[in-house]
Amino acid sequence: MKNYTAEDQFLANKVILVTGATDGIGKQAALTYAEYGATVILSGRNTKKLEAVYDEIESLGYPQPALVPLNLQNSSPEQYSQVADVIAAEFGQLDGLLLNASDLGLLSPIEHFDEETWYRVMQVNVNATFLLTKYCLPLIRKANKGAIAMTSSGVGRQGRAYWGAYAVSKFATEGLMQTLADELEKSDIIVNSINPGGTRTKMRANAFPGEDPNTLPTPKDLMPAYLWLMDIENNRQTGQSIDARDFL
Ligand code: NAP
């Protein structure tokens, strides 16, 4: 997909929810979707950071975004249901869902892996992805066509020593993506996973503290792949494990 170029304003009148919109790849994806015309619903756990992204989108003259503060670590199923109710009341439907937020946890051998960290990573990376998908799906069905993108990782496709809960959570994400894609095969909703590959963000710096960040692509470099995931008029790929690197 090296030659993919998104059409200007192809996301006009589309409503897209982005989790982890406060930093890194999610923040850049939110800005980029807005640049291409989308009304972006920004979700994150840090209200100050969310408001800063909101202000940036407004100052650039893109469509007015919306804010959904949500901590994926400790929100109840009722809170996810309420998020869907708020989106339904405000917008009536949802065209795209980018499930991007994740918790790295810590790198440790399975034998010594801290249980609390394991549960937290599974809650943020797997259970929250399931809950948001479950409660948003009726809203996506209301859109003419829809796209769901779940964020994976290289270690969600091939296990690697010490990546523990994070790697296992990403395998679960791939499983959720494939299961849902199969269920929706006959619908106009596409469901895919995206592996960004090593990218210059806070999470990558935490995982690889000795690495020179200047050797890595930036979140902005990855945006062709992230636009493709939401290009529901042209993209009929579903159930696919996509690599952002293939678009560079
Ligand atoms: P990042 O810069 O650390 O951003 C992570 C985002 O997730 C932030 O917005 C963060 O919020 C949010 N988040 C974390 N825990 C949360 C919680 N409990 N509730 C709500 N939001 C929460 O990381 P990134 O590199 O952009 O990662 C984005 C996605 O790409 C992740 O799914 C990651 O696994 C995946 N990925 C990244 C790389 C890479 O090299 N960067 C490689 C493979 C996969 P705060 O701003 O409040 O911290």
Short description:
41% of the residues lie in helices and 14% in strands. The chain is built from seven helices and seven strands; from the N terminus they run βαβαβαβαβαβααβ.
Strand order, largest beta sheet? 3-2-1-4-5-6-7
What ranges have pLDDT less than 50 throughout 5 or more consecutive residues?
Answer: none
Overall tally of domains: 1
Give the topology string: H per helix, E per strand.
EHEHEHEHEHEHHE
Look up the CATH topology. Rossmann fold
CATH homolog superfamily: NAD(P)-binding Rossmann-like Domain
The global form is: globular
What is the share of helical residues? 40-55%
**What ions, cofactors and ligands are bound?**
NADP nicotinamide-adenine-dinucleotide phosphate
What is the gyration radius calculated from CA atoms? Answer: 17 Å
DSSP strand tally:
7
State the separation between the terminal residues, measured CA to CA.
8 Å
Total helices: the number is 7
Structural class: alpha/beta
| Main sheet properties | 7 strands, parallel
**CATH class, please?**
Alpha Beta
Strand share of the residues? Answer: 5-15%
Mean pLDDT across all residues, rounded?
97
| CATH architectural group | 3-Layer(aba) Sandwich
